[in-house]
Amino acid sequence: MARTRQPDIRPVTLERLGVLLDAYGAAAERWPDTEREAARWLIAQSGAARARREEAADVDRLLDALPAEAPSSSLAARVMAYSQRWSFGRLRA
After folding, report:
1. What is the number of other CB atoms lying within 10 angstroms of the CB of residue 14?
2. Where are the alpha helices (DSSP H) in 5-90?
3. Contact at 8 Å (CB) between 63 and 56?
4. pLDDT, tens digit, for every residue of 56-90?
5. What is the spatial distance between Cα 19 and Cα 17, in angstroms, rounded to a whole number?
6. Is 17:45 a contact under the CB 8 Å cutoff?
7. How far apart are alpha carbons 36 and 72 in whole angstroms?
8. How far apart are CA 27 and CA 37, in angstroms?
9. Within its chain, how far is the Cα of 42 from the centroid?
C-alpha cells in the first residue's frame, strides 16, 4: 500500500488512538473533532490501528446488544438530590 502524506494536524499515535477508542468507541463521529482526522489517517495507514479499531467495534457491538435498564428509584432520587445541591458548578452546603 502506498503511503500518503499525513494531514497537517497534530498526529495521533497508536497509544492515543487506543485511549480514544476506549473512551468513545469505534464510531469516529464520537471522537473529538480535534483528533478525528488524524485518527482516521492512522487507521488508514496502520494495520495495528485497524486491528485496534476492530476490537473496539466488537466491544461496541456487545454493549449495543445489552438491554437498557432504567435506574432504580433509589438511585434516581439520590442523583436528583445531589444535583439540587449544585449551583453554577459549585457544591452548596
Report:
1. 12
2. 14-24, 33-45, 47-65, 73-84
3. no
4. 999 999 999 999 999 999 999 998 888 877 766 66
5. 5
6. no
7. 36
8. 13
9. 16
Gap between the Cα atoms of 36 and 40, Å rounded: 6
Cα–Cα dist 47/81, whole Å: 48
* pLDDT given for residue 9 in this prediction: 73
Q: Which one-letter DSSP state was computed for residue 88?
A: T
CA distances from residue 49 to 29, 39, 44, 67 in whole angstroms, order as listed: 17, 9, 8, 30
Q: Where are the domains of the chain?
A: 1-66
pLDDT tens-digit map of 20-31: 999 999 999 999
Could you tell me which residues come within 8 angstroms of residue 63 by beta carbon, excluding any fewer than 6 positions away?
A: 25
